Amino acid sequence: MTQPPYERGALGAMYAGLVLTVLATIAPYIDRSTTHLLAHHIRSGYPTYHQARVDSAVTTYLVVLSVIGALGVLDWLATAWAVKAGKPWARPTATVMFVLGSSVGLTGLLTTDTSGETGIPPALGWAGMIPCLAGLMAVALLWRRPRLT
Fold first, then answer.
1. Angle at 16 (CA atoms; ends 10, 17), nearest 5 degrees
2. What pairs with residue 112 in β-bridges?
3. CA 144 to chain centre
4. pLDDT tens profile 9-18
5. DSSP calls for 58-73
């Protein structure tokens, strides 16, 4: 059975979201080995922290962001499977997952910690929001009504 064009487009957006989620998940690890943006952000917010405490905070953020990324990957795969299988609950599930993913992304981007700064640097926060664009596209395509010919 072939899928309608809007479902194929939605699946494409979901697979793009999956790739973007993987990239957003590995971005903090790349940062840790190159620019140290997260460590500098923590150090500027907490200038009295010694290096071991900054390293511990960075590791904690990496674990949290990795878990969020892994859950995002599982969500993309499960939702794409539901759409591909033609499950009747695929559209509402995709919508709920989009709202949850966007909420998590916005939380990371906007939540301030006790230093008065956001918990993660804005660059990493925005990287976490990019997969939500694919989610928005997928949801819009899933809820689009097919043209009558």
1. 90
2. 118
3. 23
4. 999 999 999 9
5. HHHHHHHHHHHHHHHH
